[in-house]
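Q: Hi! Curious about what Transposase IS66 family protein looks like structurally. Here's the sequence.
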Amino acid sequence: CALIVSLAYRMRISRGKIREFLHDWLGIELSTGTIQRCMEESARASFPVEDQLVEEVINSELLHVDETPHKEKKTLSWLWTFVTRYSVLYFIGHRSAEIITNLLGESHVGWLMSDGYSVYRKYAKRLRCWAHLLRKAKGLEGSLDRKVQRFGRRVHEIRGALMDAVYEAREGPPPGDLKQIHARLLKELRELCETMKGAPHEKASALAGEFLNLTVRSN
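A: Let's find out. The predicted structure is below.
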């Protein structure tokens, strides 16, 4: 059954093609009905595993969440990924607050690592994914607008300095409070973003808004 499930869901092969593969390569003769029943039995057998994964996600100290477009035939859905230290849970559904609310509700009290999607902002213990922000800042560096170029470049530089400080702190205790030590850089970043928040350049304005949402949450 594991091979059949993998062919159907991982390789996205139709029941008829699975039947053909099993016959031609393994000499196994199965009807499409038997293949379907095998998949249904596998789904029923995995129910306890799903409950365990949900429990691990809810009780995790650090939870990474992301969502990406996922097409099923002609229907556009979203693939949600919930990653803890030891497990990964997938959901396919709409891109809305309903998915994460139904899963986590008010039960998750650990840290939530995410991108800037607004549905995550209600969680007080939220960490922002720097990789998303860095990619957007680097994109602005290639803009034809010089003001936008400078904004993207400086954000990239400040981000680099702050991340270096974080990595150094992991190696040993810093000489003081990191927020106080780098107060000048944080102030500069905030002022840059406040200046660009209303800029006519849509992507620069959006990135500035994301940073401001982040700094407001951390204050």
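A: A fun detail: Residues 40 and 46 are 10 Å apart (CA to CA).
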